[in-house]
Design brief:
The chain is α/β, with parallel strands linked by helices. About 40% of the residues lie in helices and about 20% in strands. The chain has a domain of about 180 residues: Type I PLP-dependent aspartate aminotransferase-like (Major domain) (Aspartate Aminotransferase, domain 2). It has 14 helices and 17 strands. The protein binds pyridoxal-5'-phosphate.
Length: about 400
């Protein structure tokens, strides 16, 4: 039985998979079992930001794997301490809680927000407002937080205390605020929802609203953070900071790790024993992530992401001028979306056949989230391919 048959027979059929089994990755390229080469414009959905098998990350993993892999959070370890202090040095945050995934980081943020107010005696302050079209994960709390009905189908009853408002609409948000609201949670650039950046005025107004009402502001930067938008964290583009932020995906460049970062004040919501996870922040995961943060946070690296993002966007804009099928081009840095007039599915398949990996979201949108090390010549090849298919 080949690997496709084995997967289809023995793995839950929750993913619609494409093509052959991949067997090797290097930089922006992948190879399938027939030896066919692909250029990766998805990076495992904004995960492999430094490219496949980046030598420094491989070395960090190998070195740590032969030194110390796991001891539990009942003890101190050096890579976890170094990564936490590095993340705080590079961001607004004072405290970090390590997780294994994005959804788990968002779970932590939801729990922290509620407990922060319950500890203060405000037991009725538990409601979390999130945005329509948002995506926050697939656990029960995070799918409840997600503003898309299709993600929730069949899982009722959902959790109490969540509501959704239209994104980029400050009046809608204001009208949803009452004394039960503990947090507002949003992605500065919506990913799964269709690559929709927050308007700068909107985000400023949300921050002000949270300050005025004493509400915690949570930014989910699981997809748009870690250099993806051309700054280490996407909210830096807007000159404001949240109280709590979640990251994952690119943090480990493929090694599973997530984190919830918070201010000192918000962090008071958790005490000894109030939250835990066996694998959160193991020496192996944090050693890999520390190397990732060291590389991505360099100004020169981020500068290149901005340049390449602008170049890519310009090329997509040119396609829009030429082809009536292209309705919109949007995004920040190297998180870009091309909206078409109809279903993007067939184009995704045709591009795959030509050796380009992209994916379709919200039916009509092509999402581009290549490794951040992508070069002009690879972008040019994709644009040429797209041009001929359009
Ligand atoms: C913005 C955002 N939040 C949360 C998640 C969930 O992360 P994970 O799949 O690691 O649980 C994702 C995953 O796509 C995401 O894009």
């Amino acid at each position: 039985m080949n690997s496709i048959k084995k997967t289809d027979n023995f793995v839950f059929q929750t993913y619609l998979r494409q093509g052959k089994a991949f067997v090797k990755g290097e930089g922006v390229f992948l190879w399938d079992e027939d030896g066919k080469k692909y250029t990766d414009f998805l990076a495992g959905i904004a995960v492999v930001s430094l490219g496949h098998c980046h030598p420094k990350i491989t070395e960090a993993i190998n070195q740590q794997a032969s030194t110390l892999v796991h001891v539990s959070n009942l003890f101190y370890t050096i890579p976890q301490a170094d990564l936490a202090s590095k993340l705080c040095e590079k961001s607004f945050s004072d405290r970090v809680f390590f997780t294994n995934s994005g959804a788990e980081a968002n779970e932590a943020a939801i729990k922290l927000s509620r407990r922060y107010f319950q500890k203060k005696g405000e037991k009725n302050r538990y409601k979390i407002i999130t945005m329509e079209q948002s995506f926050h994960g697939r656990t029960m709390a995070t799918l409840t937080a997600t503003g898309q009905d299709k993600i929730k189908e069949g899982f009722s009853p959902l959790l109490e205390g969540f509501s959704h408002v239209p994104f980029n609409d400050i009046d809608a948000l204001k009208s949803e605020i009452d004394e039960t609201v503990c947090a507002i949670m949003l992605e500065p650039v919506q990913g799964e929802g269709g690559i929709i950046p927050a308007d700068p005025d909107y985000l400023l107004a949300v921050r002000k609203l949270c300050n005025d009402k004493g509400i915690l502001l949570i930014f989910d930067e699981i997809q748009c953070g870690m250099g993806r938008c051309g700054t280490l964290f996407a909210h830096e583009l807007y000159n404001i900071t949240p109280d709590i932020m979640t990251i994952a995906k690119a943090l480990g460049n493929g090694f599973p790790i997530g984190a919830m970062l918070s201010t000192k004040d918000a962090a008071t919501g958790f005490d000894y024993g109030s939250h835990a996870t066996t694998f959160g922040g193991t020496p192996l995961a944090t050693a890999a992530a520390l190397e990732v943060v060291n590389i991505i946070s360099k100004e020169k690296f981020l500068d290149r992401v901005r340049q390449m993002g602008q170049y890519f966007k310009n090329q997509l804009e040119k396609l829009k001028e030429k082809h009536t099928r292209v309705v919109d081009v949007r995004g920040k840095g190297l998180l870009l979306g091309l909206e078409l007039d109809k279903n993007a599915g067939p184009l995704v398949v045709e591009l795959f056949e030509k050796g380009f990996i992209v994916n379709g979201i919200q039916d009509k949108i092509l999402r581009f989230a290549p490794p951040l090390i992508i070069e002009e010549k690879e972008i040019d090849r994709l644009i040429k391919g797209l041009n001929s298919l359009l």
